[in-house]
Amino acid sequence: MSGDNCVFCKIVAGEIPSIKLAEEKHCLAIMDINPFAPGHALVIAKEHHPDLFSTPAETVGAVAKLAKRIAGAVQQATMPDGLNIVQSNGPGAAQSVLHYHVHVLPRLKGDNAKLNWSLTPGDRDAIIDMAARIKGFL
């Protein structure tokens, strides 16, 4: 399975150059060429899967394991105030490349990344109802 027009598939195949950080059986870590911050890296699945839901659990695990390793290196290299691991699915989550990948995103206080939200207490009964609904699909 591959995406004929997928930029990440082309990077994995060596058709498009990348700045490689690490490579493992199921995934590849590269620098983001449109970085939000210095040290912004990507961990991409080698096989084409458009999102988390279509990606085999073994691949998701391999990506997560490499993302942890890359995050540690980015942390040491950049000494940010914080670090996000971001994985988006679908247009509502601003997924820009339809290929399973994770961003390792070093953060600085006040950097204005549109990832944070304010903490607003929810309705406990509504949360309990939603939990029951979610559990029904597990």
Task: Describe what you observe in this structure.
With 138 residues, the protein is of the alpha+beta class. Helix content is 29%, strand content 19%. The protein has three helices and five strands; from the N terminus they run αβββαββα. The chain has helices at residues 7-12, 57-78, 124-135, and strands spanning 20-23, 27-31, 41-45, 82-86, 101-107. Strands 1-2-3-5-4 form a five-stranded antiparallel sheet, covered by helices on one side. A hairpin with a 3-residue loop joins strand 1 (20-23) and strand 2. The chain is globular and about 50 Å long. The protein starts with 6 loop residues before the first helix and ends with a helix.
Task: Sum this structure up briefly.
The protein is built from 3 helices and 5 strands; from the N terminus they run H-E-E-E-H-E-E-H.
